[in-house]
Amino acid sequence: MLINSSWAYLLMYIPLLAAVSFTIGATRHERRELILDQAVRTAVWITSFMLVIYAVLQILSWMV
Q1: Which of 4, 22, 52, 62 has the least CB density, counted as fewest CB within 10 Å?
Q2: Which conformational region is residue 29 in: left (phi greater than 0), alpha (psi within -120 to 50 degrees), or beta?
């Protein structure tokens, strides 16, 4: 069994990820370059974390 996600859910992920990443970056720094750097690093971290969770759930769904 393959875990499916609608493209609509994936498209909602992008603005949510941007909002969270820029908010975290803006609360830690005041300079634009540092905010963008922090936002990119946070977005990569969140996306990696979500992919790991997806992979674990996918493997668990194959075992059942």
Answers
A1: 4
A2: beta
Place of tokens 């720094």: 29
The 10s digit of each residue's pLDDT in 4-24 is 667 777 788 999 999 999 999
pTM of the model: 0.81
Of 12, 21, 22, whose CA–CA distance to 48 is shortest? Answer: 21
Written in H, E and C, the secondary structure of the chain is: CCCCCCHHHHHHHHHHHHHHHHHHHHHHCCCHHHHHHHHHHHHHHHHHHHHHHHHHHHHHHHHC
